[in-house]
Amino acid sequence: MKITATLLAIACGSASAFTPATGFGRTKSALNVGVEGMVGGEGPEPMPFTTTKTSKDFDPAGFAERAPEWVPWFREAELKHGRAAMLATVGFVVPEFVRIPGEQFSFESLPKVIDAHDALPDSMIQIFLWISLLESISIPALANMNGYDRRPGDFSFDPLGLYPTTKEKQEEMQLKELKNGRLAMIAIGGMVAGSAITGNGFPYLP
What b/e string do you get for 55-80 counting C-beta neighbours within 10 Å, with b at 16 or more? Predict the structure, then answer.
């Protein structure tokens, strides 16, 4: 039951990537209000089975048109989900091969990574508390998102100094993060579903 609830939560989180995330409206007015300067809507990757046939300004549900003032929040939410999904993807695969010290984490005690959700409640609580702490820290930034010049997802956290200095390279890195985050949201949902259904470890196939 717990695994089913987890799968449902992941599916909902992954689905959010395809609605507000690209959030680039159908009309010029919506584009000018909310998404100007954001990366991710340039295209022109082909999009079969759609009316536009291209990923440029892809927003079939019209979120940016109907709520342009929410577009920064949509992008912030997408980046958060993408970053969490990228960490989750790595965290789901790596323990298939390497475990941290501790009997409760050993391959003998926990043959399948997905079983950790139910078998290690204390660890799950710690994860939840750390996520809650990070979310609470970000509340002031989100509350004032439209009140000052802050790019969605930017918390000025770059301890290794990897963020480029030129605008062109900055936008290139932002686009890479966006696309990798979207891919990771799909990937973690697929991996958890595959593991739960097949009962197998990596690569979670029958």
Answer: bebbbeeebbbebbebbbbbbbbbbb
